[in-house]
Amino acid sequence: MTDNNEVLLRVENLKMHFPIFRGIVFQKQVGAVHAVDGISFDVKRGETLGLVGESGCGKSTTGRAILQLYKPTGGKVFFKDKELTTLKRDEMRAVRREMQMIFQDPYASLNPRMTVGEIAGEPLIVHSAASPKEIQERVEQLLELVGLNPRFANRYPHEFSGGQRQRIGIARALALQPSFIVCDEPISALDVSIQAQVVNLLDELQDKFSLTYLFIAHDLSMVRHISKRVAVMYLGVIVELADRESLYLEPFHPYTQALLSAVPIPDPFAEVNRTRVILEGDVPSPVNPPSGCRFRTRCPIADKVCAESRPEFREVKPGHFVACHKV
User: Fold this and answer.
1) Alpha helix (H) residue ranges in 112-267
2) 327 SS3 class
3) Cα 232 from Cα 313, distance rounded (Å)
């Protein structure tokens, strides 16, 4: 999709299927949840790629499969020209110093038995990256970076608000000075008043350390603010990928059009005059996804060809990719 010299992460035909077993003593696989089903994209060095879609479409699973927290069922993940799915455990551990994750729930992702200093310094201990004195100094630097008082290092997570806990999670992700971070809905569990502060912090850290983000979120307006390019995901597949201006001003895929029509506009006249796209029915089960195009059961323009063959994910304009027979 882009010049290989600029690409930091490349995903090719990534699949993540979770087996379904039945039986108590003799378990037999009777099916699989097709959480991610053959997606391809790349992330350029220093950019933020937004990944959006409904709940259950496979966004978080994609992020975890990229980091090899889940072992992918199929496909390839290249990070700086290293194929991650074939690396051994020790080799992958070395690569993980450059790939980190900010988790969605700041209440569940921090160990309540550990102090803030222990949480932020744990990656340095695990990777033997510093001496005890250096770890203490580094923890103080990290807390200052994310806007927390270094004197809070001896406190426990329950003494902090949700926004402060997420800052602690960000500090932990930065401990090993990574180049790529998966932000798994880092603001969805926070109050609206705190969300902008966390997003601005991520922006500042990206400029300061030349970070590359995969930003997973539900909030389309926030994704437009922070992302350079946006990928839209539906039922385990990417249906559209483009730079943010092209996607928001001229969406091609019917699903993207429906998503964007639901985003509130801070203009009462424009809000009244615009046309809402209301999708009928529910999202099909990922255990038994529809044949052909995944979106055809809810698509207002679907016809026979949509049921017969899966649409090719192709470039319809420079840098604008769509998977739809009708575009």
Assistant:
1) 116-126, 132-145, 162-174, 192-209, 220-226, 244-249, 254-261
2) coil
3) 12
What SS3 class is residue 156?
A: coil
Q: Which of 322, 319, 289, 321 is nearest to 307 (CA)?
A: 289
Residue pLDDT, tens place only, 261-300: 887 777 677 666 777 777 888 888 999 999 999 999 999 8
Locate 150 and state its tokens.
Answer: 């270094």
Of the candidates 173, 200, 176, the residue with the CA atom closest to the CA atom of residue 187? 200
Q: Which residues of 171-195 are buried (b: 16+ CB within 10 A; e: fewer)?
A: bbbbbbebbbbbbbbbbebbeeebb
pLDDT digits (tens, 9 = 90+) for 107-139: 899 999 999 999 999 999 999 888 889 999 999
Dist. CA 169–CA 109, nearest whole Å: 8
**Angstrom distance (rounded) from CA 264 to CA 283:** 22
Whole-angstrom distance, CA of residue 327 vs CA of residue 323: 8
Q: Angle at Cα 290 formed by Cα 234 and Cα 284, nearest 5°?
A: 60
8 Å CB contact between 283 and 56: yes
Residue position matching structure tokens 């030349």: 210
